[in-house]
Structures are given as structure tokens and as C-alpha cells.
């Protein structure tokens, strides 16, 4: 295996480990670390260029626990949203959060 590929794999596993380790308090830390958290996420939802009743697709890369996805889904009930994250544990939390 190429050394560079091996190093990248180790780095990715380290990142995944760290995100998995902090999944239980991720939401609270996001709110503390992002200045004006509510305004920031609210602005993201506000600038989505679709009507509430339209069908469209969103790819949420780095979805974490689905905080932003939940806000989008609440406003755009017909949106098809795909979540991607390096942490399986984060995606599990997002799946629970988004169950209807």
C-alpha cells in the first residue's frame, strides 16, 4: 500500500474516532462554538431557493446529528434529504432525530 494512502486512512480513522467520541454532546457544543447559532442555521434555511411545497433534493455533507437537517425538514416537508457523515454514531443520532 502506498504510504500516503495508508497515512490518509489512519488520519480518517482518527477523525472518525474523535467525532464518535463526542457524539453525545455534539449538539450542545455546536451551539456554544458557533456564534449566533440560531441566526446562522436560520439563515441557511431561509436562503434555500425553493417553496415550502416543492419537491427537491438536498445532500447534507457533514450532517452530524442532523441539527440543520431537522430545521430544513420542518420547513420543507417534501424535500428528499440525504445525509452523509464520517461518523456512523452521528448518523444514528440523526436518524433517530428525523424519525416521523
Q: How many strand elements?
A: 2
Helix content estimate: 55-70%
CATH superfamily: Vaccinia Virus protein VP39
* CATH class value: Alpha Beta
Structure description:
This protein is mainly alpha-helical and 100 residues long. The protein has one domain: 3-Layer(aba) Sandwich (Rossmann fold). It is 57% helix and 10% strand. It has five helices and two strands, in the order H-H-H-E-H-E-H. Strands 1-2 form a two-stranded parallel ribbon. Helix 4 (67-75) links the parallel strand 1 (57-61) and strand 2 (80-84). Helix 3 (37-46) crosses helix 4. It is globular. The termini are far apart. The mean pLDDT is 82.
Record keyword descriptors for this entry.
2 strands, Rossmann fold, two-stranded parallel sheet, single chain, 100 residues, 5 helices, mainly alpha
Compile the SSE list and pairings:
Layout: H1 3-21, H2 26-33, H3 37-46, E1 57-61, H4 67-75, E2 80-84, H5 88-98
Parallel strand pairs: 1-2
In brief, what are we looking at here?
With 100 residues, this protein is mostly helical. The chain has helices at residues 3-21, 26-33, 37-46, 67-75, 88-98, and strands at residues 57-61, 80-84.
Amino acid at each position: 500500500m502506498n504510504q500516503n494512502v495508508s497515512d490518509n486512512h489512519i488520519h480518517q480513522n482518527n477523525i472518525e474516532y474523535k467525532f464518535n467520541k463526542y457524539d453525545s454532546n455534539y449538539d450542545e457544543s455546536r451551539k456554544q462554538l458557533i456564534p449566533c447559532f440560531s441566526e446562522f442555521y436560520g439563515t441557511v434555511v431561509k436562503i434555500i431557493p425553493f417553496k415550502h411545497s416543492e419537491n427537491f433534493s438536498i445532500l447534507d455533507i457533514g450532517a452530524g446529528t442532523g441539527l440543520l437537517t431537522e430545521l430544513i425538514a420542518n420547513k420543507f416537508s417534501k424535500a428528499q434529504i440525504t445525509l452523509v457523515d464520517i461518523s456512523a454514531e452521528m448518523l444514528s443520532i440523526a436518524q433517530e432525530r428525523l424519525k416521523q
